Amino acid sequence: MMTAEQLKASILQLAMEGKLVEQRPEEGTGEGLFHQIQAEKSKLVKEGKIKKQKPLRAIDEDEKPFDIPESWRWVRFGEIVSFRMGKTPPREDLSFWKRDIPWVSIADMIDGGVVVKTKEGISQGAFEKKFGSLISPKGTLIMSFKLSVRSVYKELHADRETGC
């Protein structure tokens, strides 16, 4: 008998391989979608909203973990999204920590939630000097690898907080 976790993993694997639903030509191809994404990224570069990225190395056959439908295309993550690593202005420089621009930190993030309010803000100077005046627009997916550690820590110590 299959456990719930095994069923979930099986469904996810079938979806990644394009075997969960019928592939319909009228829905387009991975190649077409890739070109639409590239056009949008070019537009955003021209508008100064994102930086132009260096071309990425092609995916070799031995890197492909499984077969996908012919209408799909293997791509590297950086070819379809614009991503950058976050950074924090030095805490010791108080001139960077004003309420001019909302600053999203791990403390503002909730599991599966949407950030609507921040506890801190940075100054216009920090924005210009540390971030080159690039701001993440509304609707941006913000991920933190530290958040998962924090969540695990909370779960591991939940018994102490509740007295169990």
Automatic annotation (TrEMBL):
Keyword line: DNA-binding, Restriction system
TM regions (residue ranges): none
Gene Ontology molecular function, alphabetical: DNA binding
Record GO biological process: DNA restriction-modification system
Keyword DNA-binding included in the entry's annotation: yes
Record bears the keyword Transferase: no
Annotated protein name in UniProt: Uncharacterized protein
Species: Porcincola intestinalis
